[in-house]
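Blinded run. Sample ID left blank on purpose so nobody reads anything into the name before looking at the predicted structure. Input follows.
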Amino acid sequence: MSKKIIEMAKKFTPAKVEPTESLFAGTGKVPPQAVDFEESVLGALMLETDAIMQVSEILKPEYFYKEEHGKIYMAILKLLSKHNPIDVNTVGQQLKIDKELDAVGGMSYIIYLTNRIASTAHIEYHARIIAQKYTQRELIRIGAEMQKRGFEDVEDVADMLNEAEKSLFELVEGNVKKQVATMQQVFQDAYEQLMAASEREDGLSGVPSGFTALDDLTLGWQKSDLIIIAARPAMGKTAFVLSMAKNMAVDNKIPVAVFSLEMSSVQLVNRIISSTAEIPSSVLKTGKLTNENWNSLNSNIQKLESAPMYIDDTPALSINEFRSKVRRLKETKDIKLAIIDYLQLMTSGSSQQSREQEVSTISRNLKAIAKEVNIPIIALSQLSRQVEQRGGDKRPQLSDLRESGAIEQDADMVIFIHRPEYYGLKVDEAGNSLIGMAEIIVAKHRNGAVDDVRLQFKSEFTRFCNPESLGSIQTFKSKINSAPDESPAAASAGITPNSDFDTPAFNPQAVNADLSPVNNVPF
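Blinded prediction complete.
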C-alpha cells in the first residue's frame, strides 16, 4: 500500500451526518444513529480475524445508518461466505469487484476505519447498539407511515391496524434470535421434564385431554406441538375440542384459550353449559327449562364462571393477530393450550398468495408460534369431499386434508374424527353397535404411536366422553392403523402386531348409561 494512500487516510475527515432523510427533513432532528460505533465495528472486523463471528447474527447491512457502512459490511459478509480472509485489502478488493469502492469513499476511507479503534474487545456490545438504533428508526418510520395513512382517511381502520401489527411483528421477529444451547443445558431441561412427569399420578407429560384412552396414547398434548384435528362437516370437530376444553378448564382448572372464527362466544358458552349441566342444546335454545334443568344449571354456575377459559370470536383472524393474542394470554393468563376453530377461516395477511399458499403460510406459522410460546396449539381443519365420494365406511385419510399438503408436513399430530353412524352404519364388521360411537383416529404422531380410540358421543349435549366400563370393552383396532396383512376379524379381536398400543373399544351396552367419573374427570 502506497505511503500516499496512508497519508490520505490519516488526514481523512468523514462527512458530517445530516438529517437528510425525508422523514426528518425540515425538523432539525437527526434520526437515532451511532455512526461512531458503526465505524468502530467495521474497523474491528477488518483487524480481528474472528470478530465477524461475534456480530454476524446481530447485524444486517440495512442496520447501518450510513449507506456506505452498509455496503462495506455487505462486502465483509460476501468474503465470509466465500471463506476468504477479511482485512483492509480483501474488503477493498471486494468493493472494487462490486463497483462500490468509490461510492464508500475509496481505499482511504477503508484505512481510516481501521485507525478508528484501539481494541476489538467490545465489538459485540457495539454491534447491539447499532441494532438498537436501527430498531428505533424503524419504529419512527412505522409510526410516521401509520400517521400519514390515518390522516388520509381512505382505507379501513381494521386494515391499518393489521398492517401496523404486521410491521411491528416483523421488526420484533428480525431482532429476536434463538441462542444456541449446549447439550448440558438441553439435558437439564429434559431431565426436569422427566422428573415432573414422574411425580404426576396420571403419568402424563403433557396437557391432559380428559379422554383416558387418548391420553394413554399421546401422554397428553405436548408443549410446542401443532395438533391438527380434521373431519368432514357435522362430525363434531367443535364439540370434540369444546369437550376437551371443558375437561381442562372447568374440571381441572387448566387455563385454555379458544379462538372461534366460526361461532360466536355466546354460542360456544351455550354448548359448554349444555355439556356441563347436561341440558339438551335444543332446550337451551328455546329457553323452556324444567325445574330439574334449572337446578342443574344453578349447581354448575359457579364452576362455569370461575373456569380459566378465554374465548376470542374475532372473524377472519390473521396469523399476526393470533400470534399477538396468544403471546399476551401466555404472559398474562399463563394459558397451557390454544384451540383454533378452524384453520381454513384464518388469513395470512397477504393478498398476493393463492389459497393453497396462504394455508401453507398459516400452518407453517402456527407451528412456529407453538414453538415460540411453548404451548400445544390445536387447529381444526376441514377435509375434502373425497371422503364423501369414497365407498365403504368412508374413513378419512391423510390425503383428504383440504387445500394444502403443508398441513400434514407441519403438524406433529394429525387426528381424524369419524362417526360411522352419520353415514348410516349401525354395526361394525364384528357386529358391535356403532350407535353413539365416535372413532378418534390418530393418523400421524411424530413423537409416538398411531392408533385409534373410541369415544361416546352424546348428540343431545354435543359432547364427547369416555365409555363407561373400560373393563368390559373389547380391544379395538381400525383399518387405517392396522398392518396390511391384518384381517378385520383379527383387528376387532385385538390380535394385532401393535397390541401394546391397543385401546378400548366402544361398549354398545353403555350407550344410554350415565357415565361415572373416569381418571378424576367428571362427565
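Unblinding after everyone has recorded impressions. The first helix runs from residue 3 to 11.
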